[in-house]
Amino acid sequence: MGAVKRSFFLAAALLLGTAAAHAETFQFADREGIVHYTNAPTDPRYRKMAKLSGTQEGWLKVPPAAIASSSLAEMISVAAGRHGLPEDLVKAVIRVESGFNARAVSNKGAQGLMQLMPKTASILGVRDAFDPAENIDGGVRHLKALLDRFNNNLPLALAAYNAGAGAVDQYRGIPPYAETKAYVSRIIGILGGDTIATASIPSSTYRYVANDGAVVYTNIPPRGVVKK
């Protein structure tokens, strides 16, 4: 995020006629599909953008996708922090649900980034499921409610997100649906879990920003940190 913000700051500076006109632009896409832009690459994955580098004109042509990606990451961060969920969990759900496609529609009618069914979206107060901010906030609230319902058991909450809470109640666990079992395993795998049986969200989750700007989630908060 820092690299993206720095790039846009320089682009704005160019509009004011500063001396940054000959800066070069670099980009890379991370595992979540988010595109990062910078003029000072610190990661070996960055590659120079031939068509958008070296001139003031090039800087002013940074594509809308760059802004969209930056905004999407910020929306995820805000929603996750607001409702007390790890950002990586929200990103993993979006990755599996829609592949970060805000216009995605499933064959069952689920819509948007977090694939909200129209009825669920309505209950959550989401007026436009294709609006990224509304969709993410609604989906995160829905997932948080499921975690609360299933005592912070992440596999059960994910199964309920995919197949419905009623199905989890009926089978007293992850329903024996191939799609649901694959869904849960895939998200747990993205998060680095070894087995879906032991994965869970701590009952008390804390969030704070470290000195280097990193957002940290933990069940053992540093001194003075207030529970979210």
Comma- or semicolon-separated keywords:
single chain; globular; 228 residues; 8% strand; two-stranded antiparallel ribbon; 46% helix
Number of domains: 2
Coarse morphology: globular
For the largest beta sheet, what order do the strands appear in spatially?
Answer: 2-1-3
Strand percentage lies at 5-15%
Overall pLDDT: 73
CATH topology of the largest domain: Lysozyme
Q: Which runs of at least 5 residues are low in confidence (pLDDT < 50)?
A: 1-22, 51-68, 194-198
Integer-rounded radius of gyration: 20 Å
Provide the structure class: mainly alpha
Q: What is the multimeric organization of the chains shown?
A: single chain
Helix content: 40-55%
The sequence of SSEs as H and E is HEEEHHHHHHHHEE
Distance, first to last CA? 22 Å
CATH C-level class of the largest domain: Mainly Alpha
Main beta sheet strand tally, sense and closure: 3 strands, antiparallel
Explain this structure.
This protein is mainly alpha-helical and 228 residues long. It folds into 2 domains: 2-62, no CATH class; 69-190, Lysozyme. 46% of the residues lie in helices and 8% in strands. It contains 9 helices and 5 strands. It has helices at 2-15, 56-59, 64-83, 87-98, 118-124, 132-149, 154-163, 165-171, 178-190, and strands at residues 26-29, 35-38, 47-48, 206-209, 215-218. The strands form 2 sheets. The chain has a 3-stranded antiparallel sheet. A two-stranded antiparallel sheet has the order 4-5. Helix 6 crosses helix 7 (154-163), helix 7 (154-163) packs across helix 8 and helix 7 packs across helix 9. The radius of gyration is 20 Å and the shape is globular. The two termini are 22 Å apart. 32% of the residues are buried. Residues 1-22, 51-68 and 194-198 have low confidence and may be disordered.
